[in-house]
Each structure stands twice: as structure tokens, then as C-alpha cells.
Amino acid sequence: MSRKDRFYPQRRLRWVGGVVTALLALTLLGATVTAAENTESTESDSFFERRGINDRAGFFIGGVASTVDTRAQINPDFGVGSSIELERIFGLPSERDYPRFQGYWRFNRKHRINFQYLRAVSSGTTTLLDEEITIGNETFELNAQIGAEQDTRFAAVEYRYAFVNNGRAEAGLSAGLGFIDANLELFGEVNVGPLTQIAKEQVNEIIPLPVAGIYVDFTLTRRLFLSVDALIFSANYDKYSGNIDDSRMALRWYPTKLFGFGAAWNRTRIDLTIAEDRGDIHLDYLFEGPELFISFLVPGLK
Prior knowledge:
The protein has four helices and eleven strands, in the order H-H-H-E-E-H-E-E-E-E-E-E-E-E-E. The chain is mainly beta. A ten-stranded antiparallel beta barrel has the order 1-3-4-5-6-7-8-9-10-11.
């Protein structure tokens, strides 16, 4: 194993197996409720005639191809006193794929609960100096490497109230609670002959934040929908301060009453400051890019 592999092992997104498992589970769920759907008569209801679906609940499984811009300012032991671009300096990939899961459960046409989860993982190393130095009669290889590892997770649960929901359009407000699990580790390793010096700085914080937002959902044709929603997160309590905005525009189509698929554009911005006794830590993330997803519905709304 090379020194680089020992210094900074690469991580991979291990969500393919989870997606397959979820697909199988939701397919079984759809099969069990199909019989119940066939016994319902909603064709005479103009609400369902316009929409073409009878969705008590929905689950979305997608993959986002994102362009990522990450900046960090860490004042403590590692000595990073100014804002640094992790993709440029530490060799983190600027193009990343990550999973995004969403869903909702309706109590009736006015009230529902929404949830979402995403995770973005990346890592990189780079060599700052690679040369030889001579001390006395001996020559030493001088090699300095730095690396970064990032694992950012975001989850939110929100209550949504629809001021309008007539089958052609649904629009309302939302409020709830979001969670950010920010994990960032910076490495530094300098080898002078047989001697090695290592520096490390790590941020590992789970930050709860209140959320609020708006959403609209238009019925373009039967079973074809255009959705736009946005969440805003803001906080200034304890040692945390900052804001987050998460927006999404999606077009989805349901060839059947239980299954659909679509495409979306996502943008998530996280700007946080963590006040520590040894110095403030500032994190600035931007995830932006297209998404392809599939959807499973649970019928039964009346």
C-alpha cells in the first residue's frame, strides 16, 4: 500500500445497494395497495380527474450530478487562517454524484408531512513539495502532502399547509426542523527522510436548524406535474450562526397511478460559522446540479 493510500484512504458512496433495497420494498408496497386502489371510485371526482393520480403518499429516489464549491476557514491548530477552496487546494473533485431521498404523507388535501435526506462525500490529496535536501553528507527526500475529507449530510422534516389545492394547482407554506451533519477533516504530512510530522484538524458537528419555505405544484396535463419548492434555514444560537437555502424545480410524469419518474434541478447552499474557544470555524458549501429520480405512490387520498 502506498503512502498516499495510508495517509488518506478514499471513500466511496455506498448507496447503490440501499437504493435497490428501497426499490424492492416500495415495489412490494405498491403491489399490496393496488387492490385497494381498484376498489376506489375516484373517476367522478373532478379533483382526481384533473390530476390523474390519487396520492396519499409519495417516495422519491434520485441521484444528483452536482457541481460543488467548498470553502473553509479554520483558525485553530492547523493554521488555516483565511478562506481556502478545498476543490482547488486539496484536490477534491468539483463534480460529484450523490443520492437524494424525498417523500411526503398527506393527512388530507390541505395538510401533509414532507421529509428529505441527502449526503455528499468526497476526498482528495495533493503534493505541495517534492524535492531533495542535503544535510551534511547525507541527502534526504523532502515530501509534503495535504489532504481533505468531507462528509456532509442534510435532513429535514417539515409540515406543509396548502392554501390552494384544487387539482390544477397546489400552493402553500412549510415549516419544520432541519439537521446538518458536517464532517470535515484536513491533513498535513511532511516527510524528511525517515522522519514524519503530521498535522490534523477536524470539524464534526450535528447542527439543528429551524426551516421555513414555500412550494407550488402545477398539473400541466393528467399525470404530468411541475413542482417548485424552496426552504430557508437561519439560526444564531449557542455557538452556531449562519443560513442555508435549498431550492428545487422538478418535472415528473406518472405513466401509471403508482409509478413515475422525472428530472429536477437542485441548489443547496450552506453557510455556517461555529464559534470555538480556540477560534472560529467557517464552512461554506454550494451543491448545484441536475437530478434524475423515480417515484412510488401510495393511493388512498379522499
